């Protein structure tokens, strides 16, 4: 009988073994010097890590425990650790922009991707998100990734096998267009979660609605506001999904040094938007959130309605205009003009103010 938190030795989670124990040949290792600079290397028997300040032999690391501190040929100290997933994603070979760790974490949590879930994704890129999804679904789950370009699929496969120490039993990757392939290869209503990282996710409405189970989650990763808006409006118009929600996350690190505790000058700000919705039961029309009616196109009538008051600006009263005119009159260049010219300018402003006020009774 196993205690809570333990795993049978004969069936460890896939990839767990390569994350434990001493360093092995072929592993990626992160070296950090005394100034905090990081370098990621792949351990090779007989290899060496060279800098302008000497070199460090790989053989000195192979067989050492994680967390070892070594000295290179010129006395420079290096701390050796296995890269965390976030480190690996940012340093791994890539053919396309990666989904940043902050967004991958949001996708896993907000889409409720759990061990054993059946997930499909499109837009594999370099495999960064695929790694997080495979960790979430586990060996008993299922991840089917679709990628149009063979080069990207090869890069993703290499990165996935690097971090898991070989092919993952829950992963299947298919070359081709998501809309066409997913309905051919997945049974209707058999998928728990759909994750799309592509230019036009609104084109996949029918395919997603076909394979996604009732209550299943569809989450989209898009880069621009126009993509976000078009996807949301397409989902609303379709009627087979719940009202979509959208957000973005920003991560700001902090500088910690004695009493000098302050936000970092740089941060990981906008990387992409996440938009999430859920599949309704077949034949059910979703509830429409009550909100002000809006149009995506402008008519002449709409343009005429764009007055300062309509867009929230406060109307400036005649009284305020007169007061401002008087203030302007009293501050004409602060005496920079000759007296007679300044008086003429004041008279002009006074005449304008009287025209606004209208005739006065004597």
TrEMBL record:
<feature type="domain" description="tRNA (adenine(58)-N(1))-methyltransferase catalytic subunit TRM61 C-terminal">
    <location>
        <begin position="90"/>
        <end position="254"/>
    </location>
</feature>
<keyword id="KW-0808">Transferase</keyword>
<protein>
    <submittedName>
        <fullName>tRNA (Adenine-N1)-methyltransferase</fullName>
    </submittedName>
</protein>
<keyword id="KW-0819">tRNA processing</keyword>
<dbReference type="InterPro" id="IPR014816">
    <property type="entry name" value="tRNA_MeTrfase_Gcd14"/>
</dbReference>
<dbReference type="Pfam" id="PF14801">
    <property type="entry name" value="TrmI-like_N"/>
</dbReference>
<dbReference type="Pfam" id="PF08704">
    <property type="entry name" value="GCD14"/>
</dbReference>
<feature type="region of interest" description="Disordered">
    <location>
        <begin position="1"/>
        <end position="25"/>
    </location>
</feature>
<feature type="compositionally biased region" description="Basic and acidic residues">
    <location>
        <begin position="342"/>
        <end position="362"/>
    </location>
</feature>
<keyword id="KW-0489">Methyltransferase</keyword>
<dbReference type="InterPro" id="IPR029063">
    <property type="entry name" value="SAM-dependent_MTases_sf"/>
</dbReference>
<keyword id="KW-0949">S-adenosyl-L-methionine</keyword>
<feature type="region of interest" description="Disordered">
    <location>
        <begin position="325"/>
        <end position="362"/>
    </location>
</feature>
<dbReference type="InterPro" id="IPR049470">
    <property type="entry name" value="TRM61_C"/>
</dbReference>
